[in-house]
Model the fold of this input.
Amino acid sequence: MVPTVMIKDITTNKESGTVDLPCLIDGISLYIKKPAQPTAAEVDTWKDDAFVAPFFWVGYTDIEAEATVQLKAKKVGDYLIPVITNNTTIAENSKLLLYKAQAKHMPLQGAATIATKRFAPPFVALNKAKGKRSKP
Done:
């Protein structure tokens, strides 16, 4: 499967809503926007002019053994095109899942975390009536 989109959904600027895919044409990086697609499971409810691109219906899993497809970059002439291919036999009506490793959370070097941060003592206001500090 390839990321099929309308020409209006191709841009040279990485902006909000673009998909992070490698796409290089004549040395120029291109970014694509995910097209609006029907979401209802019943095909007969889709509009006659509905745009359907199965590439964007592929889901993600962080369990490598559950992945049924893989993302590759295929060179066609001078073009580098993202392509999704199956990496195993896929049973009918199976979910198409790409493996995407879970992000590792690492604290910034030298940053304090809530567990290690020491908070300042609470501010105690002056009691003007008696000239004494009020209890916290």
